[in-house]
Amino acid sequence: MALGAATAAPLVIAFTDNVATLACCEGRSMQPTINPRAGDATIVLLDKWSARSGAFSRGDVVIVNSPTQDGNLVLKRLIALGGDYVKKANGRGEPVLVPKGHCWIEGDNPAMSHDSNSFGPVPLAMVTARVLCKVWPVSQAGPLERRDTPPSRVWRPGRDFWALGGAGAEPPSDGAR
């Protein structure tokens, strides 16, 4: 029996490090998607394979190494990918171009979220997993709601960007208008 456990342990560790694992999430930045009530804790299933393969989409909920607190992880919604322009949630300032290889992350509860609106784009290499579903409490178990970002906040370069008056409202000279 000890030999069986010794053989299985490396397989389980490899699976949870590279494929999927469970995580307990606390905090209010993703309310009501995660932890609908203050003080709640939710257990979620994490897809680590997506982080390794870069299979992300706008609207995914992801786990990211905190860009401001070493050793901490944050759970946020992926709002934009490299090449997208983002208007900050407060609507102030010029749109931000998300650099290639980066993403823009935000909490679903803007009043309680410390996110890209504060610290800017995050390297995709800091994304460690994609959240597949909630598994606990059982009454909330199921896939996460996918939310598209309003086109008034996130857009790709080209016609829509210039129509919204981005970057001084001067279109590029190559006729991309």
Automatic annotation (TrEMBL):
Q: Which SUPFAM superfamilies match?
A: LexA/Signal peptidase
Task: Enumerate the InterPro entries for this protein.
Answer: IMP2, LexA/Signal_pep-like_sf, Pept_S26A_signal_pept_1, Peptidase_S26
Q: Where is the signal peptide?
A: none
- Where found? Mitochondrion inner membrane
Q: Which Pfam families match?
A: Peptidase_S26
Q: Where is this region: Disordered?
A: 142-177
Keyword Cell membrane assigned to the entry: answer is no
User: What are the positions of the active site?
Assistant: 29, 76
Where is it found, in Gene Ontology cellular component terms? mitochondrial inner membrane peptidase complex
Q: Name one GO molecular function term.
A: serine-type endopeptidase activity
BP GO annotations: protein processing involved in protein targeting to mitochondrion; signal peptide processing
This protein's membrane topology, according to the annotation, is:
Single-pass membrane protein
**Predominant location of this chain?**
mitochondrion
Where the record annotates domain Peptidase S26, the positions are 7-91, 98-136
Q: Which family does it belong to?
A: Belongs to the peptidase S26 family. IMP2 subfamily.
Can you say what this protein is called?
A: Mitochondrial inner membrane protease subunit 2
Q: Which organism is it from?
A: Diacronema lutheri (Unicellular marine alga)
